[in-house]
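Illustration: SH3b domain-containing protein.
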Amino acid sequence: MFETSNVRVPNGSTVTVHTPQPGWTGPGIVVAVVILVVLGAIRGNPDDRPATPREVSIAQPEGIALFAEPNAGSPKLADLPVGRTVEVLCHTDGPESVGWGGTSRIWDRVTIDGLTGFVPDTAVNTHVTVDKIADPC
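Result:
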């Protein structure tokens, strides 16, 4: 016979624990539950991560311009070389752009050295989709 217990860990997951006898909490089960709780507390829930701001690097090999609006036809505020770090504030839709990260209509509103403007999302390395690190503008 097994007794089934559900244990909720800090990251929001539920772990089902099966004990061999009703009411038995042997050291192996206790250690397993403690490990799972600690791992959940360390990892946390990715959805609890603050959405903004986030620092990312320019990944476009030839660099990219920082634009006043989310389109390449707007005034250029600065040239950003590959490897330069910018802070993503939010993201919005704009004209399609092609770059290091493929093709997309997403533009990131970023800040660097006191300037705030837009770069195509395809020009930066966010490591995840931009909606995981920044809210819509």
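Reading the tokens back as a structure: The chain is about 10% helix and 45% strand.
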